[in-house]
Design brief:
alpha/beta; Rossmann fold; eight-stranded mixed beta sheet; two-stranded antiparallel sheet; 33% helix; acetylation
Amino acid sequence: MAAVCGSGRLQRYVVAPSRRHSASLIFLHGSGDSGQGLRSWIKQVLNQDLTFQHIKIIYPTAPPRPYTPMRGGLSNVWFDRLKISADCPEHLESIDAMCQALTELIDEEVCSGISKSRILLGGFSMGGCMAMHLAYRNHQDVAGVFALSSFLNKASAVYQALQKMDGVLPELFQCHGMADELVLHSWGEETNSMLKCLGVNTKFYSFPNVYHELSKTELETLKYWILKKLPEEMEKQNE
């Protein structure tokens, strides 16, 4: 069962679990896409919907904003940036504004009875970068983070935040196509290495002959990891 919800600041596409809702997954699209577009792309790659018996999947859509790589044209992007490069500074003003909007989405799940330790954050490309900012700078108590074909800038605020933190951090699941010409595989590797050095437990999967795209093997590997991080809870039986 799926529905488009427009309450609050962010429009989102929701795929409800088939049984009792005990965990939530927030899946962020790449630049220029939408929540519904990402869900449709995943369905096309897997030849079926990504669904779980107990996990609600939320696909938010970034509000349109001027995007510098498109010469200031409006695009559904989570934040602005000068260019798609690991070497340029982050546009923290737009990143932080979107962290606030996405925090409202997390708070909605918590208010509905889902613990932060039963919420996963992740995304594709720019969405994966956004998820890393959201988790490691604002919500270190979520169940985990996943980033597909994503990277962080070399002087990222995420690295600066982690240098000041102690305690357990959410595990990172990362995938990257080795043939990616838009977001280089090496950028993803460098991001993973940096986060590992800063105390994050990481998993990194490389996929030969995969460009800047989703692959079936990648999504199946991700699904296995999601179920490992958010296993179905046994319902308490009334005696």
